[in-house]
Write a structure and sequence with these properties.
This protein is an alpha/beta fold. The chain has 7 helices and 10 strands. The strands form 2 sheets. Strands 1, 4, 5, 6, 7, 8, 9 and 10 form an 8-stranded mixed beta sheet that branches. A two-stranded antiparallel ribbon has the order 2-3. It starts with a strand and ends with a helix.
Length: about 200
């Protein structure tokens, strides 16, 4: 299974433009997730999607992960279009894990757990969710909430898709986890501070 981090967008909520380059303690945000992907058993190749909006991210990845992580360039104008182009340009021929760059607490073990669930699930696509109650316990406010059969769930920004049929709508299964480290995506100063506290503990 290949993995693509989508890092071509902009963010303003953290006071910077390139979220992947936000510093968490002494390291850029994206480095945490890249290290976890590189250490995961089920991940074969790792890519980072960049755009004209994320030149610093591209340079950071090139300088830090020479030969271990490949760059995929897209326009940055449309998330879905960028994702489809990135999958095509990667040359993937099987399942591909798509991740946002703001998941610094996701470990190699978490990634392998999700990959294993996908491989055993029998569906071409899988989306990862956490219950909204977990966000309340963490004292954070989720950006997006879905009502799934009466249960309020929050997407974490991790999906696994079949690269062969990436141009088509894929039958999807929901994968629900109740793990704080997977739930926290850094989209605010509050969530950044929460991550710092959890790393220090």
């Amino acid at each position: 299974m290949d993995a693509i981090i989508m890092a071509g967008g902009l963010t303003q909520r953290l006071g910077v433009e390139e979220k992947a380059c936000v510093m968490l303690m002494d390291r850029p945000l994206i480095n945490y997730l890249l290290d976890s992907l590189l250490g995961a058993i089920h991940i074969d190749r790792v890519f980072v999607q960049v755009s004209p909006y994320s030149p610093d991210t591209e340079q950071l990845v090139k300088d830090t992960y020479k030969g271990r992580v490949s760059i995929l360039r897209t326009s940055g104008d449309n998330y879905v279009g960028d994702m489809v182009k990135a999958v095509h340009d990667s040359g993937s021929s099987g399942p591909v894990m798509i991740l946002m760059p703001d998941l610094p607490l996701v470990s190699s073990e978490h990634i392998d757990m999700m990959a294993k669930a996908y491989l055993e699930g029998g569906f071409p696509a899988m989306s990862v969710y956490v219950p909204i109650g977990l966000y309340r316990e963490l004292g954070l406010r989720p950006g997006t909430v879905f009502n799934k059969k009466g249960e309020m769930l929050v997407p974490v920004g991790i999906n696994i898709l079949d690269s062969v049929t990436i141009d088509e709508e894929q039958q999807d299964i929901d994968y629900l986890v109740n793990i704080p480290e997977i739930a926290i995506n850094v989209d605010s100063v509050e969530s950044l501070r929460k991550c710092e506290g959890m790393l220090l503990r």
